[in-house]
Design a protein that fits this description.
Shape: globular
Structural class: alpha+beta
Strand content: 15-25%
Oligomer: single chain
CATH class: Mainly Beta
Radius of gyration: 19 Å
Number of strands: 11
Bound molecules: succinic acid, fe (iii) ion
Helix content: 25-40%
Order of helices and strands: EHEHEEHEEEHHHHEEEEH
Number of helices: 8
Length: 294
Amino acid sequence: MDHEVARTLPLADWAGPFMPEDQDAALSALEAGQVLVLPRLAFRPLPEERALLGAEALDQTRKNISLDPATGALHGTSLGADQQAHLAAMLGRFAGQAQTLLHGLLPRYAPALERARTSFRPAEIAGRSYAPRKDDTRLHVDAFPTRPQRGRRILRVFANIAPDGAPREWRVGEPFPDFAAKFLPRVRAGLPGQGWIMQRLGLTRGRRAPYDFLMLGLHDAAKLDGDYQAHAPAASLSFPAGTVWLCFTDAVLHAAMAGHCALEQTFHLPVAAMVEPNRAPLRVLERLAGRPLA
Ligand code: SIN
Ligand code: FE
């Protein structure tokens, strides 16, 4: 790999204070498509939460437990009411810390940043088997069938809280513009009216723009291309337990290879809030396609 896939900062407190040079470094690393690694910024589960960190917290049919910020409801768990309350409290605390971090470290984004789901990922990744499209051990950019973004960025904060100290292992691929140039010719932007119909049928929350069809196409095409998965340039990143990291997962080609017990907080950000909006996948795809996509 000839580009630096990660940038590390020694931040030790979720609430800062943050030095201007760290704020600048964080923002430019993220917009450039790097993973920002914060090895000193641990999320610490409370004693009553430690008991929940086993994979048995997980409903066997789902890989994640998530907290919906709008309703406060937990999805994907078969835990009893008491334990659900502890889990919801842990996810809520993580969400709050992640938000505090982003507001302090990326003040430019703060007014536009929207908090979305929080997830807990207890299950061991290595050795699971999924259909290729759902297999996150294959390099991909994030795009979700039911949640159109219409160009909005996906910024995710992760924390490895594995009680046994197991690292979370990622692979990170080539820069988005290189990836997109290779795969865009193979994907389709949806038929006229298709986004509208899917919304009316309740298949999507909000209407897919051509951008969403293309991003889903890129997600699937990359995962289904065995040759690309085997031979594309990629670097390994290992996140020890106690580490926090974040990136724009709609632009960073990533694959999660091993590990268990991670927390993840999703934020959405309008392209216009970026310092360099031309680096947004929306703008990259629009340049390649030669037309507006959202
Ligand atoms: C993914 O977004 O593909 C999975 C990341 C992770 O759970 O580490
Ligand atoms: Fe992903």
